Amino acid sequence: MPLGRAEIAGLIPHAGRMCLLDEVTAWTSEKIRCVARGHRDAANPLRAGAELPALSGIEYAAQAMAVHGRLCAAVPRTPRAGYLASVSDVVCRARRLDDLEGDLVIEAERLAGDEAQVLYEFKIFSTDMEVLTGKALVVLDA
Hints:
Layout: E1 3-4, H1 5-9, E2 23-27, E3 31-36, H2 57-71, E4 81-92, E5 104-113, E6 117-126, E7 129-141
Antiparallel strand pairs: 1-2, 2-3, 3-5, 4-7, 5-6, 6-7
């Protein structure tokens, strides 16, 4: 069942423009797939000067992970905060996100975790190009 931006914003602590995801297109107990379109927006809050660095995709992936945790009830209520404790195995195949013409497709797969911490593997695509991949450990302050 797809979810739109308003439903996503109700699941995570990110508000306004910091809610980077526009849509959840699919999810299971292990995986989630989201779409983001604001990477080309000049008012994107993650922009550094005149561009949006590709490594900003880690925040897009972290938000997908947060939504997934809430949808699967692994995290029973919105945490006050989630902290990226570490990222590893990151491979970046683009320098920036704002010059990609297609939507960003963000996929995250839960590898392990509990209510206090979760390990995910993530992938970000645009059109047919794999832009960013890696793993992230998130610690939750519930």
